[in-house]
Amino acid sequence: MHHPVAFYLVCLILVAVIPAFLFSIIVLKRTNEAQERIFESLLRTSTSAVNRAVEREISGMFSTLNFLSTSDSLQKGDYAALHRQASKALEGTDIYFILIDPTMHQILNTRVPYGTALSAASEPVSAGLALSRGERMVSDLFFGKTAQQWVFNVYQPMRLHNGQQVLLTLTKNAEALRRAVNPDILSPGWNAAVLDTEGKVIVSTDEKQKAGQPFFLRVVPSLRLGVSTMRQDDVNYQVVTEFSSLAGWRMIAWAKSSDVQAPAVSSFLWLTIGGAVFAALAAAGAVGIARVLSRDVRLLAHDARRLGRGERVASRRYAISELETVSRALAEAADARVKSENEVRFLMREVAHRSKNQLTVIQAMLNQSVAGAENAGDFAETFRRRVSGLARSTDLMIANATQGVNLAELARNQLKPFTPDDTSRVRIAGPAVLLDPQASQTLGMALHELSTNATKYGALANDTGIVSLSWVTAGENLDLVWLESRATIDKQAIADSRKGFGSVVLERMLGMALDATLEFIVHDDGIEWRVTIPLARLRDEEAHQPGSSE
């Protein structure tokens, strides 16, 4: 199925954006979860702080009762003196002292001057329970008749020396606990309240939750400690609850779930909108890029068709550098095509010329092989090996028609068939020298004949002989040395070999074709050929220029 470039670019953008968007959602979700855990921990810390503040207030009240219980005026029944002592001890506080007898009648109350007529206790249930149990207690919230506002009491029963049982009481206005419920320690959108055992609000940061009214979440008895979720009037709330073991009250913090989740929802909304906007912008950019690409590709296709027709192609400027590179390549290819056509024509002339030369060489090899062969088998083997050597030289010539044949590669190629298993017995060394096809063909046949003679009569005819081929460039000449050592010398064989095709190649062809001078030396353990060839005859530069002729 084929699609335009814009389709694939848009797909690429979506492939890049969608996983990133999904990954961002996952990261956002996990971040929100981590923040919720941190948030819950902070809320628990906040409710715990409220709880500790309330319990410090109540503990302080119990300590005050302990102090007043040691008063001599109390034991002596001097209530006027006890009233003065308690008023002085509680001066500057919002706490008042009350003494209640077993009939639940107030004996004294520091809210009013001593001697003022007092009524029965405003909350006789919890007072009577504390007196009957003989335990100190904290009352629930109630409306004080004397104070004319919502208060709570702290009780401590005591038996006097005369056996009379009384109830020492400290009363405190509910409003005074507001400083314990500090809204500054709460997160935005959250409220906190202190509830008594019946679920009535003692104090709250929410102005709608009045003291003495039932808490609006009417499931207080079932509230679980810690973090929970509740639903009231089709609204979900998140609630954090702490329990005071000293007072039996609950400290509660709450917020609407929608308010709590609002930052996460807002973040997700912004992420969604941002992702959609970025994806749209990226897609629009991809379409724009695709149009530029399509236009440039059409121009490239036009130039390619012109190249196919053999026309000249000029390099163009494109908005995309890679396409501009392709355009330059097309222009270079058009130029290279013309050059290649010229080279092909040159090579065709070269092939015709070299073919004629090879036919002449093959004819000479045939004549010499026939003359030196003792039988048909010897002729066939000799002629085959000479043709193989010529073929290897030809392969190198064809492979490096325009660059030239490397002398070291030619030497390794010709000596390889004659190299024994111990390759260290054949040594080739010399600098890089390039040969033209004719010179490589002539030197290749010379090296082949030298290797053949070494195999028959020289260093490669035994198991210890060594053949060393080396050359150096000296001025305008190439000095080449073929040296055989550790060979068993057969002077008659050497004399006979100089009459064969090898000597013809070395002395005639090298001398005639390459203007070489040769020196033949016979050592006690082998022969040596010293050949000097003008470098100009090894690399004819003009012969390799397109359009040149032989």
Can you tag this structure with a few keywords?
single chain; 550 residues; alpha+beta; Beta-Lactamase; Heat Shock Protein 90; 6-stranded antiparallel beta sheet; rod-shaped
The number of E-state strands comes to: 18
Shape: rod-shaped
Uncertain residue segments: 541-550
Characterize the biggest β-sheet: 6 strands, antiparallel
Which class do the helix and strand fractions yield?
alpha+beta
Estimated helix fraction: 40-55%
User: Strand fraction band?
Assistant: 15-25%
3D structure, described in words:
The chain is α+β, with helices and mostly antiparallel strands. The protein has two domains: 1-310, PAS domain (Beta-Lactamase, 2-Layer Sandwich); 360-544, Histidine kinase-like ATPase, C-terminal domain (Heat Shock Protein 90), CATH 3.30.565.10. The protein is 50% helix and 20% strand. It has twelve helices and 18 strands. The protein has helices at residues 5-69, 72-76, 79-89, 124-133, 257-308, 321-372, 376-399, 407-415, 437-456, 491-497, 501-514, 535-538; strands spanning 95-100, 106-109, 137-138, 142-144, 149-159, 165-173, 191-195, 201-204, 226-232, 235-243, 250-256, 405-406, 426-429, 434-435, 466-474, 477-485, 517-523, 526-534. The strands form four sheets. Strands 1, 2, 3, 4, 5 and 6 form a six-stranded antiparallel sheet that branches. The protein is rod-shaped and about 160 Å long. The two termini are 57 Å apart. The model is unreliable at 541-550 (pLDDT under 50).
